[in-house]
Write a structure and sequence with these properties.
By secondary structure, the chain is mainly beta. It has 2 helices and 12 strands, in the order βββαββββββαβββ. A hairpin with a 5-residue loop joins β5 and β6.
Amino acid sequence: MKNYTVNRIGKNILQINGLGDNPFWNQAEILIDFISPWNDTKPEKIEMRALWDTENIFFCYTVYDAKIHIDRKDDSVDSIAESDRVEIFFRRDETLNPYYCLEIDPTPRIMDFIAYPNKKFDYDWNWPENDLIVKSSTKESCFVVEIGISIQSLNNFHLIKNNIIQAGLFRAKYTKQQNNLFEPTWISWINPNTETPNFHIASSFGTLTLV
């Protein structure tokens, strides 16, 4: 199982702004080994950084993409699900019963839900509002999504054990086809070794170790 080390910083010194330019991000390891196991084309570069303090864990995705697709028909789950986005899933254990999903587009709209085995999704569930902050920005060559999640909420959901969090890190990229429809390319930190794209499976998760 792949592991990413989350470095610790001082309490309340990282204020996210959606730009990814805070100097404290330089203290984070840079994760770039994202792949698209079901597509022959190598995905454009994605950088993910994470840090934590005693109050929060912070994530910063920098996604290099000059052709971002956002479905703007409304703010529904369906609209977000048809847009470019980054995703983080958290689980308690391999049973995936339950697991928690955050999917965030560049605007940033949040699709958060609790899920159960066999892709049973409860979209009426939301991450507690005061325990989640998301900010983003779009530049000419990339978009940035910064996420702050309270340690308390992760503990409430029993998602931290011995300073280890089991998580999946993903990206959906939508590309316009010859028929003018947009089709997704699914990109993952972990290769789940499935014939068809599937993030909602135990083999798509790695570990985040808080040090």
